[in-house]
Amino acid sequence: MLLLVTATGRRISDLLPAEYRDPIGIYISPLLGLVGLVLIATVYGWLSPFKTSISISLSVGLLLIGIALEKKRADLFRDWLIVSAFAVVVTIPVLAPLIQFDSFNPFNDTFTYLVHGQWLQEHAYSEAARASGFYPAESQVVVYQTGGHRMGASFFLGFVQSLFHMQWSYYAYPLTVGLVFALGSLAIGAAIRQVIPVSRTVVLALCTLPAFSMNGFVFGAQYGFFPQTFGLAFAAGLAALIPGLTAYILSAKPSLLKQFFHLLPLSLCCAAFLITYGDMFAALSAAFVLFFMLVCLQNWSEKYRILGFVLTLAIGILLLVNYDGVRLINNFISTALGAASGKVHFGWPVYWHPTQFVAYSFGMKLPFDNSVFIVDKIFSTWIFPFLFFGIFLIYIKILKIQPKNFTAIFLLCINFVFWLAFLKFRYINPGLEGEAGNTFLQFKLAKWLSPFNLGLLGIAIAWVLVNSEKYKRIYKYTFAVAFVVGMTIHLQVLTPMFMLSFQDETMQKKSPFNVLLDLRSRISAIPEDESVYLGIPADHHKLTQMVAYVLSDRKLAGKYEDGYIRGQLPENERDMPIESADWMIQLKSTQTSDENPLHRVGPFLMRRAPFSFYNLESITGSHGTEVGDRKTWNWVKETIEYRFQHVGKTPRTKVKFQFLPSGDPRTLFVDLSTYSGKKIAAFKIPMKGGWGDYESPAVETNSEDIVIRISADGVPGRLSAGDPRETKFLIQNLSFSPDPLGAVGDDVHASGDISQNFSQLDPLSKAVKTPDSVEKYKERSERRLRILRETLGGS
Prior knowledge:
By secondary structure, the protein is α+β, with helices and mostly antiparallel strands. The chain is built from 27 helices and 18 strands. The strands form four sheets. Strands 7, 8, 10, 13, 14 and 18 form a six-stranded antiparallel beta sheet that branches. It has a five-stranded mixed beta sheet with strand order 2-1-3-5-4. Strand 11 and strand 12 (about 680-685) form a beta hairpin. Helix 9 (about 170-195) crosses helix 21 (about 440-465) and helix 19 crosses helix 21. The longest helix is centred in the middle third of the chain and has 35 residues, at about 470-505. The chain starts with a helix and ends with a helix.
C-alpha cells in the first residue's frame, strides 16, 4: 500500500510548481497518493461491489503507470523505503492491540464502518440496503444511505479488504487506519518545513509527535473515530498546501490555466476531505475565510488574484465531488443546525479544565478523566501552561522575523476560529448536569486541532534546535526520552485499557475476536432458514453489534434497544418475540449446572426451541455493571433490581450469587416478586464480613416474569480512597435458573466425563436431525437423563 500511494502521489505532486514541491515532496506526496485512491475507491464503490480481481487489476495498473511515468525511479524507491520505515514506527500505538492481544477493540463506532466494508464486498452502494430486524447489521448502511452521510473512508476500507482478499473487514481495519494515520503524521512535516527549513532527519523525527504524544489524532485512530482519522490526515495536508500555494500564486503570478493545474492537488485533497469527513467543513471554512482576508490585507494590490485563486479552487472541488456534492451539502446543513448549534448532546461528558483541552490539542493530556491518573492532571493543569507560554513566545518571534509566512498565519487562523467555537460551547451552550457547557463538543474541537497544534509544537521545537546550537544535544536526548516514555505509555497503559471491555465481554484475553468467529462456526450448523434470537441485554449492546456483524448473512431476531440499530428498523421488527425464533444466543457469563457445555461459546449459550429458562432483561439501582475474569458484578448503594423475563415453561427456579459487604451492613434481604408486584418469596442472609455464597431453595415461579430485589441494612461507605462511589454491598455472578426437577427442555447438565454422550445428542451437530416436535424433544430429554443416571451411578 505504501509503494502504491508513494508512486501515485509523486505523479499527482508533479502538478505542483517545482520550486514549491521539491522541499516538501516526500512529506506530502504519499498523502496525495492516498487522496487519489480514496476518490477512485468512492467511484468504484458507487458503481460496483469491491471484487478482488478488479481491485488488484486497478492497483497494479496505477502502480505501473506511476513507475512508467517516473523520471527518477531511484528517488521513488528511496522515498518509499523512508516512508515505510517511518510508518513502521508511527503505527506502533495503532497496531499495539494486534501485537499484544491479536485483536483490537471494536466496542465504539468501529462497528458501523466494519459493516460498511463487509456489505460493500457484495453490493454496490447505489443498491439499497435492507431495513430489517432479521438482518440488523445492514441498518448501518441504511442510516448512511438515507441520511446522506460521508462514505469515503468506508469505501476505502472496502477497497483494502477486497485488494488483500480478506474474509472480514475487521482484518482490514487496522491496516487502513494505520496507513492513514502514518501519512497524516508525515504531512505535518510539510507545514513544519515551510516555516523552519531544517534537515529531513529532523522533520521526520518531529513527524513522530502524533504517535508518541497523547492527542486526539492518535486517539481517533486507536478508538474507532475512523472517518475523523481520514479528515485530520487530509486537514494536515491542507495546512501545508493552502498557504504554500497562496504564496506561490502571489509571487510567480501564473496564468489562470497554469494556476488551475497547480491547484489540482489541493482541489483533490479538499474533495477527499469533504467525502471522508465533512464534519469539520464549517470550522475550516471560517478559518480559510479569515486567512484569505488577512492575506488580502497584507497584499491589497493582489486582491483580485487572491479572489481568482479561491474561485479556481472552488471550481476544481465542485468538479471533483460532483454528484456527492448534494449529499455533502445536506450533511453540512444537518451538522450546522444540529451538532454545531451545541444544543444536541452526544458522546460522553468530559470534566476537564479549559487548560486541559488546550494541553490535549498539543498532545500533553491523556484522554481520561482527571481521577484516573493524578500525574496526568498535574501535568496538564500546572506544567503545560508554562510550556504553552514558551511555544507562544517562540511563535511571536517567528512572526516578527517572517511576518508573511503564510503557513504560520494559517495555523494561527485555525486556532483562532476553533477556540472561538470552544468558548461558545463552554460558556454559551448549556450543558447537562455537572457539565460546563457541551463538554463533548469541546473535546471534539481539541481533537480536531491536534494535527495543527502538533505542527505548531514541531515548529517551536525546530526553532529551538536551529537557534540553540550550544544545547542541541541536550534537546535531542530530551526528545528521545519523550519518545520512549510516550510509546511506553501507549503500549503499557493505554492499549490494555482500550482492550479491557472487549476482553471482558468475550471472556478472552488473547484473540477475543476469535470468540465471535467460534460463535459463527457453531451457528453454521443451523439451517439458514431458521432464525436465531439475540438474547443479549441492552447493557451489552456493543456485544450485540459485533454478533450481528459476524452473523450479518444469517437470519436473526431480537429486541433491539441499541440506538445504532433500532431507529433504522421497521417498527414491527424492533421488538421481535422470542417465541418466533428457532434458536437463541443468550449472554450467560456464569456457567451453571443446568446447561449443556457443548452449547457454550465463551460468554454465549446456545438454546434450541422450545425454550425453558429465565432471560435477564435489565439491572437497575446499582452502579454500572462491571465484568472481568469470567465474572460479572455490581456495587450497590441501597437496592439493586434484576428483572428476568420467562421464556417457555419455568415452574421452579433458584437464585444463586456471591456477595461482599461494603460499609457496615449486617443482613442482606432478597425479595422475589412478579412484574405485577405479587410477592413470590423473601430471604434474609446474614453477612459476617468477607465473601459469601448464596443459593436459595427452589421457588415456585409458575412461568411468570420475575423481579429480584436485593437490599441491605446499615449505612453505605465510600468504596476506596480513589473511588468516591458509596456502596453497601457487591453482588457477583447472579443467576436465576430453572430447578432441574421442575425444568422442561434440553438444558440438563451434570459433572463427569460425559462429553461423548452429549455430543451424540447435541442438536447443533450436523449428524443429528433437529427435533421437529415437542414430543420428540421430550423423548430425547428423557434419553439424556437415562444416560446421565447410568454415567453417574443413579445419583
